[in-house]
Amino acid sequence: MAGKRSAGILLFRSSASEPEVLLVHPGGPFWARRDLGAWTIPKGEHEADESARDCALRELREELGAAAPTLDPEALIDLGSVRQKSGKVVEAWAAAGDFDPARLDSNTFSIEWPPRSGTQREFPEVDRAEWFGPGPARDKILAAQADFVERLLRHLG
Questions:
Q1: Cβ neighbours, 10 Å, residue 4
Q2: Res. 2 pLDDT band, cuts 50 70 90
Q3: What mean pLDDT do residues 118-131 have?
Q4: Cβ within 8 Å of residue 150, ≥6 positions away
Q5: Calpha distance 134→112 (Å, rounded)
Q6: Mean pLDDT, rounded, for 16-41
């Protein structure tokens, strides 16, 4: 996976006591029983001819569905990039917005499941979305992506 690049958006909103961030849980059988350290920002891979910011906005719509907030690209907060254990580099932006996790309608992917069965099954790319305060977000998100939460908190002061 080395050399692959992804881009995504870390949505945030204000709550009574602290900001909350929206994380998504990957769909499919490989992630079904994983929770802590498995959640991520809505993100996806981009090709060389697509800007990372355009990819991040597209992936937000694809992973959350029609109810995803419409964001002003000029208002995005650059959170930089991180390198995950796999070698993949993820670039991220933050944006103030709201989303009702009950309205999640992710795009899907197909894989052979069970393995070597010859049967193709379709799964949602994202099977859950949830708002988390900073502490729980750090526990839920992939280790490398926790830096995005920290960078957002520094930006918000």
A1: 13
A2: very low
A3: 96
A4: none
A5: 37
A6: 93
